[in-house]
Amino acid sequence: MLTILAGGTGSAKLVRGLSTVIKNFSVICNVGDNIWIHGMYVCPDIDTIVYALANMLDVNRGWGIKHDSFEFNKQLETLGEESWFNIGDKDLATHLLRTKMLRDGKGLVEITQWMCDRFGINAKIIPATEDHLETRIITEDKEMHLQEFWVKNHANGKVKGVRYYGVNKIKPSLYALDAIKSSNMIIIAPGNPISSISPILAIKEIKNLLVKMKNKCVAVSPIIGTNPISGPAAKYMESVNVDVSPYGVAKFYSDVISKFVIHTTDKIYASKIAGLGVRVYDTNIIMKYKNDETRLASYLLGL
Ligand code: GDP
After folding, report:
1. Ligand 1 pocket, 228 CB below 6 A?
2. How far apart are CA 285 and CA 13, in angstroms?
């Protein structure tokens, strides 16, 4: 049994790679970027993973459904509504049905499983919690939802901190805990450490379990040299005093991992990471094409 902790775009590549080499595994998915918008509950990371495994993901954008149209968004503008959060017309069906099911009393785990069943996905995609947990970005002048900072404000401005609003009041998904407990291997995907992985680790029952199982846990670096492969990871990491380097990520995860995979060009960090009590492996961790995803997934399974 294998469990992977995942965010969205970057994580989706490795999750897709794993699905080509093993049939059954669990994906514990970040929910910190979930947002209520236009009366609908949108779960961007869950949807990215579902669409990736259903072979529906728009891989160029890294979110949404391929070949989707955006008439709904245009109509919002016509009606004078805020339309900064792009929702494709096909994607809209997902959010509407999910919201209806929530209003009918169903939980996020059941709804996500329903989606997986509809799309014939073997992997179990499990939201880290069924409760609302919200990643908030703190800038010089205000605190806002991650989506507002990243999508509406195009990540403009200095980030002074990141907060996981509600995390002390929520319960982890029991399915997530069970998946971790029954796993021989736990992978932390190369997602954004602060906005994709940390909201999962901020749930104390999940973190405590991973600490106990750290000998089974491996993480893949989302950073090569001193740069993320994509996205705002550097901005968020700096704001919480995490060094933007493979070493910084390994240190950040050092309570919960025993193995860490870096890029072949980053061997200079190996001895410093080993000093954290973490075994270091190096390989090509860039997933540009689908065969890269399979190659990295197979490599990890061989550790
Ligand atoms: P998000 O919702 O877009 O933030 O999705 P993730 O958190 O899953 O992915 C973003 C992170 O994945 C960034 O920090 C990237 O540096 C990292 N990333 C993206 N593509 C790759 C890749 O091909 N390989 C590795 N190792 N990391 C990647």
Report:
1. yes
2. 11
> Which of these, 249, 259, 201, lies nearest to 227 by C-alpha position?
249
The rounded Å distance from CA 238 to ligand 1 centre is 17
> In this structure, which amino acid lies at residue 138?
I
Report pLDDT digits (tens) over 188-200: 999 999 999 999 9
> Mean pLDDT for the chain?
97
Crossing angle between the packed helical segments 89-103 and 71-78, to the nearest 10 degrees: 80
Q: Return the ligand 1 atom nearest residue 7 CA.
A: 8
Residue 100 CA, ligand 1 centroid: distance in Å: 31
Phi, psi (rounded to 5 degrees) for 41: -100, 115
* Ligand 1 neighbourhood includes 293 CB (under 6 angstroms): no
The CA–CA distances, whole Å, from 296 to 18, 221, 247, 259, 301 equal 9, 12, 20, 15, 9
Three-state secondary-structure class, residue 44: helix
- In 3D space, the residue among 168, 195, 158 whose CA is nearest the CA of residue 7 turns out to be 195
* Helix residue ranges per DSSP H, the chain: 9-21, 44-53, 71-78, 89-103, 108-118, 146-147, 174-181, 198-201, 204-212, 233-239, 246-253, 270-274, 290-301
Q: Is the minimum distance from the CB of 191 to ligand 1 under 6 angstroms?
A: yes
Phi, psi at 105, each rounded to 5°: 100, 5
20 lines ligand 1 (CB under 6 A): no
pLDDT digits (tens, 9 = 90+) for 151-171: 999 999 899 999 999 999 999
pTM summary value: 0.97
